[in-house]
Structure formats: structure tokens, C-alpha cells
What we know:
By secondary structure, the protein is mostly helical. About 80% of the residues lie in helices and about 0% in strands. The protein is built from 4 helices and no strands. The radius of gyration is 20 Å and the shape is elongated.
Amino acid sequence: MDFTKWLRSELPHLENASSVVTFKLIHGAKRDTRLLRFLSSVLFSVVLIFLVFSLSDMLLPLDSLSNYCVLAVIVILLVLGLRRIENTFEKWLICRKIKQLAKPSLK
């Protein structure tokens, strides 16, 4: 996501701000949300592992090629879906933090 473009469109008072100011806001937001983003990544990984094991138990016995193929397709779809949700959540965290950091700039 282009946070600079988002910042200028979402916070019009920063539209004419220098690139140094916008860089500091974006960098500060990413730095401040690093732990939350890491924890969300771990959480999504645990959910993915749990779902994969649950689905593999449902498809037991994995004695035919078709069951392996179905499991592979489901795992790929889960990975893509959860990764998209995780990215959306991380963007939301960063955007929320940018708004918080930019709020004192309103004065």
C-alpha cells in the first residue's frame, strides 16, 4: 500500500507537508505497530495450522490421490485467504497509528 498517497488523501492538512514529515509519520507508525503486527502474524499462522490439521483429520484416510489433491487445494486457498486478511489487518493497524501520530499536527 502506498501510505504516502493514502496519508495525503485521508489527512488533507498534510497534503502540502514535506516528504520528510510524511516519511517520519509512516516510519513511526510502522515502528510502533511492529509488535502487534508480529503477534497478528503468529496468530494467523496458528489459525492456519489448526485449520489444516482439522481438515486433514476430516479427510482421513489420505489413501487416495484425490484426497491429497483436495487437501492441497484447501490449504492453498486457506493460505491465500488468511494472508489477505492478515495484510488488511496490518494496513489497518498502520493507518490507525498514522492518524494517531498525525493528530498533534492539527494544532
